[in-house]
Each structure stands twice: as structure tokens, then as C-alpha cells.
Specification:
- The protein has an 8-stranded parallel beta barrel, surrounded by 7 helices. A two-stranded parallel sheet has the order 1-10.
- The longest helix is centred in the last third of the chain and has 17 residues.
- The mean pLDDT is about 95.
- The protein is an alpha/beta fold.
- The protein binds 3-methyl-2-oxobutanoic acid and zinc ion.
- The site of zinc ion has 6 residues, from loops.
- The site of zinc ion (ZN) has 6 residues, from loops.
């Protein structure tokens, strides 16, 4: 099994979700949970972007000792100096430099020539390496960049001292086959690429972020970047819990492992959802409220006989206490009987039949039948007897 490093950017790219604004104590609380979750690297923020972010990154770097802490920086000396002040107390100070390499970004956003982008990247990587033992360089908008230009600049920034090369799908534009091919091309073309960790960073604009990240892993990437709950700019970043669970559940197919303590996933997801105010959609993979809930009678009957009939992930694996049998209009008598048993109420077969009839009637009018509704029906039948 090869080890894939998990780089969490919930506190930086995740915080760039519209409407999310965490204060430094909230960030620290999340950082502590990310440490418990076992991420290899956490990106705590962008120190030069604001005084608040500087302070948050500094507090996290000074506190978190079991996880490598990094911060984002533009390829300018003042950003790097500010990042050093924030990160110098970290167990292993690490800097994340980025500069765009796609024609559209270089021409319209940066107003720089490709040669200037190479020169600035090389100079700033070597400047950063004077202090930081670990420097990651990201080619922003890599997936819309020219591959030969990318190969050339990657070789140069590695020679300048970069220890990690990240090729982000900044706009969520790539496909699994294309992204995998791009990493394979770089590994076959860049002579010194074996000296660094290769990293992927996917956004979810086309809903392919998990598939793209896994394709990158299959093509030699040793680090996956993403966020918990998939929060982030626009449609978000790749959801790290989905990547980790996909690798785990299909380990027959994917010979890779991560350091994540999977049973801390639910706690991490809940905390981040609470502090960011970004709710997790009910049907979200791995962690949504309905991910371990069954409503139809046929499914409920199967799960009661053997959960593996309809569950490929056990809820306990991700820290969810148990599955739930959701009682609605598609539910059958088995699950209903089970619920009555849970209440500790004894009914005869005839009474169960009668109560189930009342329950079914109610489901025609009410979207969500609660435990209280069922309790009331059952008690009415019981006391009528
Ligand atoms: O999506 C992106 O390109 C980024 C970079 C700053 C790494 O978040
Ligand atoms: Zn990003």
C-alpha cells in the first residue's frame, strides 16, 4: 500500500466559500479537530491577506504540533516575509506559493509574460527556501495551461528548491482521464520530478472533483488537497472524507492508504458545518444525514436482516453511531414493528396491524412522520384495548 498525504485546506480555500468568515478561536477549534482527524498538513490561512488571518495562522502554528501547518502566499517577498512571521513557530514551517500559468490568467489577470512567470516563481521559491524547510509551489489554473510550459517551469522551480509541486484544477474544468494523463506526462517529461511530492487540488464545478483526485493518485500523485464537507470557492473543493472513504472501501482496487482516523470524520464534519454555517446536504456521500438512512420497506427489511444488503460503508467507520430506518410512506411493517420495540411497548400482532394502518394513513398527509407521531399512534391503540 502506498501512503497518500492528506493536505487539508478547509481553513484557507474552504474559508473562501462565500459567506464564511471564521474568527481565530473558531479556526483554532477546527485546527485541533483536524489534528485529531490525522491530516498530514493543514493550510491555516493566507497570512498576508488580513491581520485576522495572520493572527489565526500564527495561533495555529504555535499550538498545533502533530500536524504540519502551512500558509498561502503570493510569489512576492512581502507575502513570504509575513508568512514566515506567522509560521516560524510551527513544528515544521511550510510555505505554499502560487502563481498562475494558464494563458488566460497570465495575459488578463497577471499581465505577465510566461518568461516573467518562470522568473518570478524561481526567484521566490529560492527566496522562501532560505527560511522554510518545505516549500510547495502551485501552478494556479494548471489544467488550462500548456503542458510543455508546465513541464519547463516545474523543472526550474524544483531546481530552485521547491519540495512539493501542486497542479490545481482551479476552475474544476478537467476530467479524470485528462487530469491523470497530465500527471503522467509530467512524471515522464520532467527529469527531476522524482525529488518532490506531486500534489493534486481539485474544485468541483463539474461534479468530478473526487474522480479527478483519485485519477491523479492512480497516476503518481502523493498528496491530495481538499476540504472537509467539500466547502470552498464556488462549487467547492474536493471533499477529503469522500476521497479517503473511496480509497478505503475500494482498497481491493486502490492500493493506497491515508493517515486519516476515519471515525473522526463525522465529528469533523459536524464541527465545520456548525462553525462555518454551511449545512451539509442530506444526501451527501459519506456524511449526509441520509447516507445511512433507509426508507423503503424492501431496503429496511434487507438491512434488518443484514446491513450489507444496502450499506457499503458501515456508519461506525466514519463515526456515525448507527444507521437509521426512516419511517415514511415507503416503509414496511418490519421497520415499524422494530420502532415499536424500541419504545419498549408490547403490542399484539392485531394491534401492530392496526397501528401500522394508522401510521400509513398519516404518511399520506405528513412529509416527515416523527417518533412522537408514531408513539402517539401506538399509545392510542394500546390504551383503546
Ligand atoms: O484552486 C487553486 O488554484 C488554489 C491555489 C491557490 C492553490 O486554491
Ligand atoms: Zn483551490
Amino acid at each position: 500500500m502506498s501512503r497518500i498525504k492528506i493536505f487539508d485546506t478547509t481553513l484557507r480555500d474552504g474559508e473562501q466559500s462565500p459567506g464564511v468568515n471564521l474568527n481565530k478561536l473558531e479556526k483554532l477549534e477546527i485546527a485541533k479537530q483536524l489534528e485529531r482527524l490525522g491530516v498530514d498538513i493543514m493550510e491555516a490561512g493566507f497570512p498576508a491577506s488580513s491581520e485576522g488571518d495572520f493572527e489565526a495562522v500564527k495561533l495555529i502554528a504555535d499550538t498545533i504540533k502533530d500536524t504540519s501547518v502551512t500558509g498561502l502566499s503570493r510569489t512576492v517577498k512581502s507575502d513570504i516575509d509575513t508568512a514566515w512571521e506567522a509560521l516560524k513557530g510551527a513544528a515544521e514551517p511550510r510555505l505554499h506559493l502560487f502563481l498562475a500559468t494558464s494563458p488566460i490568467h497570465m495575459e488578463y489577470k497577471l499581465k505577465m509574460t510566461p518568461e516573467q512567470v518562470v522568473e518570478q516563481s524561481v526567484n521566490m521559491v529560492s527566496y522562501a527556501r532560505k527560511r522554510f524547510p518545505q516549500v510547495e509551489w502551485s501552478a494556479e489554473d494548471a489544467t488550462r495551461s500548456d503542458w510543455d510550459f508546465l513541464a519547463k517551469i516545474i523543472e526550474k522551480v524544483i531546481n530552485a528548491g521547491a519540495t512539493v509541486i501542486n497542479l490545481p484544477d482551479t476552475t474544476g474544468y478537467t476530467t479524470p482521464a485528462e487530469y491523470g494523463k497530465m500527471f503522467r506526462y509530467m512524471r515522464e517529461t520532467v527529469p527531476n520530478i522524482h525529488k518532490v511530492d506531486l500534489s493534486c487540488h481539485c474544485h468541483n464545478d463539474l461534479g468530478m472533483a473526487v474522480a479527478n483526485s483519485i485519477s491523479a493518485v492512480e497516476n503518481g500523485v502523493t498528496q491530495v488537497e481538499g476540504t472537509i464537507n467539500g466547502i470552498g470557492e464556488r462549487a467547492g473543493n474536493v471533499a477529503l472524507e469522500e476521497v479517503a472513504i473511496a480509497l478505503k472501501i475500494r482498497s481491493d482496487f486502490y492500493p493506497y492508504e491515508t493517515s486519516l482516523k476515519l471515525n473522526e470524520i463525522k465529528r469533523s464534519s459536524d464541527l465545520i458545518s456548525k462553525l462555518t454555517g454551511m449545512h451539509v446536504q442530506a444526501n451527501k456521500a459519506v456524511i449526509g444525514r441520509n447516507a445511512y438512512a433507509h426508507e423503503s420497506g424492501i431496503h429496511q427489511d434487507g438491512v434488518l436482516k443484514n446491513p450489507e444488503t444496502y450499506e457499503i460503508i458501515t456508519p461506525e467507520l466514519v463515526g456515525v453511531s448507527s444507521n437509521t430506518l426512516f419511517l415514511g410512506k415507503h416503509s414496511g411493517r418490519h421497520a415499524f414493528k422494530d420502532k415499536v420495540k424500541e419504545f419498549g411497548i408490547e403490542l399484539t400482532d392485531e394491534q401492530i396491524k392496526e397501528a401500522f394502518k394508522h401510521f400509513k394513513k398519516l404518511t399520506d398527509h405528513k412529509k416527515e412522520v416523527t417518533d412522537d407521531d408514531i408513539y402517539t399512534i401506538v399509545m392510542e391503540i394500546k390504551t383503546d384495548a
